[in-house]
Design goal:
With about 160 residues, this protein is mainly α. Among the domains are: about 80 residues, Arc Repressor Mutant, subunit A, CATH 1.10.10; about 35 residues. It contains 5 helices and 3 strands, in the order H-E-H-H-E-E-H-H. A hairpin with an 8-residue loop joins strand 2 and strand 3.
């Protein structure tokens, strides 16, 4: 298929339209509209894909890439190695999914280890100063200084 961009476009379209068994039941006119080729270019590409390919790496069907499902109509093909292509795609999808999951797991482990690191402490002198201020404030609240205390005269016996 190397060098035949029309056949590559049409083949890719057939793969996209194939069911789980590799059957693409689509009319050449629909393919031509989807890939932007004329109907004649699409039919030529389909004929090319139906031909035997002596240089094919797959011995199935003598290297034909697609096989027409019904001889009396001009649409509907079985993609010869569809299950093989699907397995490759599924394996690639699985590898990508595992790669993403592994990356997320590593990032979450890194986040956890970063949060477990010791928080920076104030220098001892600053911490001691803060504690002294806190103690001083506590004393002021509990025991007001004598100058601010009001004294009330005793009312005993002065009636």
């Amino acid at each position: 298929m190397r060098g035949n961009s029309h056949a590559l476009l049409v083949f890719t379209n057939l793969l996209a339209h194939s069911d789980a068994h590799g059957i693409a039941d689509i009319h050449p006119r629909a393919i031509s509209e989807e890939v932007g080729l004329t109907l004649e270019e699409t039919k030529d590409a389909l004929l090319y894909l139906e031909k035997q390919d002596p240089e094919s790496r797959s011995p199935e069907m003598d290297g034909c890439r697609i096989v027409r499902m019904d001889g009396h109509r001009e649409w509907g093909w079985q993609v010869v190695n569809y299950i093989k292509y699907r397995a490759i795609r599924n394996e690639d999808d699985r590898k990508e999914q595992n790669r993403i999951a592994q990356k997320k797991w590593r990032e979450s482990k890194q986040d956890i280890s970063n949060s477990k690191q010791r928080k920076p402490r104030k220098p001892e002198s600053a911490q001691a100063e803060a504690e002294a201020e806190a103690e001083a404030e506590a004393e002021v609240k509990t025991f007001p200084p004598p100058a601010t205390q009001k004294t009330y005269p005793s009312t005993r016996g002065k009636r």
